[in-house]
Amino acid sequence: MEYQVPQFIEVEDKIVGPLTLRQFIYIAGVAGLCIVFFSFLPIIFAVLASIPVVAFGSALAFYKVNGKSFIEILEAGFNYYTSERLLLWKHRDQKIPEKTPVAEPPHALPVRNGTRLTRGKLSELAWSLDVSRKPAPPGSSSHES
């Protein structure tokens, strides 16, 4: 028997016209709250109170941040600010002593006989040591007695 695997399970169904059920509930709630404002408040105060409510309701219904709905972002922010956090590191201001200027470049290291070892020579030396090193036979220790 063959079964159909559901596709697009994260896409909500459009139930009320072009709106999903969640969007319709947000818009209906905002509309109801605005009707209450206009019923009980003078017109200027109702308009001033309705503007942020309409903006917030529109953001809840339609605004997405990185593919997540605005209510999920609000929930994550609320949980972040109300949860306890464990601080493992505390910065202490310490005065860093001033370094005296060095005449030689920082990438050159002193070597015997007064020659300088630059970064390029050092990497060549390390490579030649790695290439010439032979693996020890199994069962033998690296230190001889």
Describe the protein in words.
With 145 residues, the chain is mainly alpha-helical. The chain has a domain at 14-62. 46% of the residues lie in helices and 9% in strands. It contains 4 helices and 6 strands, in the order E-E-H-H-E-E-H-E-E-H. The strands form 3 sheets. A two-stranded antiparallel ribbon has the order 1-2. Strands 3-4 form a two-stranded antiparallel sheet. Strands 5-6 form a two-stranded antiparallel sheet. Helix 1 runs antiparallel to helix 2. The longest helix has 20 residues, at 21-40.
Q: H/E order of the elements?
A: EEHHEEHEEH
How many β-strands, per DSSP? 6
* N-C termini distance: 73 Å
Largest sheet strand order? 1-2
Low-confidence regions: none
DSSP strand content: 5-15%
Shape: elongated
**What is the averaged pLDDT score?**
80
How would you characterize the largest beta sheet? 2 strands, antiparallel
User: Any idea what the radius of gyration is?
Assistant: 35 Å
Which structural category do the helix and sheet elements fall into? Answer: mainly alpha
Count every helix, treating DSSP H or I runs of 4 or more residues as helices.
4
